[in-house]
Write a structure and sequence with these properties.
The chain has 377 residues and is of the alpha/beta class. The chain has helices spanning 3-15, 30-45, 69-74, 93-113, 143-146, 153-169, 202-219, 238-241, 270-287, 306-315, 348-356, and strands at residues 47-52, 57-58, 61-62, 80-84, 116-120, 180-183, 225-229, 253-257, 290-296, 324-327, 360-361, 366-367, 375-376. One of its GO terms (molecular function) is hydrolase activity.
């Protein structure tokens, strides 16, 4: 492409109101690139609603066709559906294949309906027992062991190959691979996971992150991922937020997980929560990245006006530009562990108001999210 054509295309993009966004994978599939662009467009005037494990199970049910608690309340699935790669390591081959089959169906069906998948990774420690949590006397500080040159680096590469194989397998009926927002090593500024701050130096964290992204996209050929960076809420400035940031070439989306400021244990500090959202929302605008409220929620939702008077009011403040907000899962058997309402739950009416607000978007509101012809229904 010569300079004259390139400059002409640049002019067209700018005058059409498009963004010159800093997506890290230059070989990303067309659908992944379009999703990236459309999420940025959405974030200027709206926000998508997401729910973790929304389609796999809910309050008192599991594995039912085309069901979610959100759909049971509103008539629409959430726009963003969370899944997890937690069973992609430290499990038997049979368990791995079973999990992959369930998740593959989930991801493809979400793509074909026009929804979006985001992937968290509760990564079972590859160098010790203890699972994904840090357990004193059991867990090892393993980020230094899985980085290049570490004792468990080759094992880590095999785990990434499992993830890559899955990414290559989510091919829909149209022959396209379903894009996913991949969010590894989340809440890394806390101490509850083995990759947490007290167990991992900044240098080792950054080394593992950079290797993970490079190996997936450049060596294993994964081109349907958008990479999300999401600490917990333990920062109060841009400098603190960026303390373990691996660099603009390794991150597509800036996020935050924050339950503590939004009512956990009855404690609210919405001013602090908003300040933190504003920090990385502004940072994403400046860096031409995406931003999202990657996890939040109020367990059991005892505040029946939480959706409109806490969450929505905050999201509409300070000119935030967030592509989506995701609340955590609804457990199958627990009577208290749920973060989205189900029919009859005390916040159900307020959630419908949240759903009806033009600012919030659910799956039914989206059309052609993976296309340049994207619009809202």
């Amino acid at each position: 492409m010569n300079d004259k054509i390139r400059n002409a295309l640049l002019f067209v993009c700018l005058t059409a109101g498009h963004f010159l966004l800093a997506q890290i994978d230059k070989k990303a599939t067309k659908e992944t690139k379009n999703l990236f662009q459309n999420l940025k467009t959405i974030s200027q005037k709206h926000i998508l609603f997401g729910h973790q494990h929304a389609l796999e199970y809910g309050h008192g049910w599991s594995n039912e066709l085309n069901r979610s608690d959100v759909k049971s309340v509103t008539g629409s699935h959430p726009a963003v559906v969370g899944i997890d790669f937690s069973d992609f390591s430290g499990r038997s081959k049979e368990q791995l294949e079973k999990t992959k089959a369930i998740l593959r169906k989930n991801v493809i069906e979400t793509y074909e309906r026009g929804g979006i998948t985001t992937v968290s990774w509760h990564f079972n420690n590859p160098a010790s027992d203890g699972g994904f949590y840090w357990k004193d006397g059991i867990s090892k500080a393993s980020m230094s062991l899985i980085k290049p040159g570490g004792s468990h680096h080759e094992e880590y590469k095999e785990i990434l190959k499992t993830i890559a194989n899955f990414a290559h397998s989510v091919k829909a009926k149209d022959g396209k691979l379903s894009p996913m927002i991949f969010r590894p090593f989340h809440e890394f500024d806390g101490d509850w996971f083995w990759w947490g701050k007290s167990q991992t130096s900044s240098e080792d964290f950054i080394a593992v992150w950079q290797f993970t992204v490079s190996y997936l996209k450049d060596t294993l050929g994964v081109h349907n991922f958008i990479y999300a960076f999401s600490p917990d809420n333990r920062f109060n400035s841009e400098e603190e937020y960026l303390e373990r940031y691996p660099g603009d070439d390794f991150v597509d989306l800036l996020g935050m997980d924050d339950y503590g400021d939004f009512g956990r244990d009855g404690k609210y500090d919405l001013e602090a929560g908003l300040k933190k959202l504003k920090i990385f929302s502004d940072l994403a605008i400046r860096k031409k990245k995406l931003a999202a409220f990657t996890e939040t929620g109020l367990e059991s939702i005892p505040n029946e006006k939480w959706w409109t008077e806490v969450l929505l009011k905050t999201l509409k403040s300070e000119n935030l530009q967030l592509a989506y907000v995701l609340v955590w899962r609804n457990d199958v058997t627990s009577t208290t562990h749920y973060y989205a309402p189900y029919p009859g739950q005390k916040s159900e009416k307020d959630f419908i108001k949240f759903y009806d607000d033009p600012f919030t978007l659910f799956e039914k509101d989206l059309q052609n999210i993976y296309d340049t012809k994207f619009n809202l229904k």
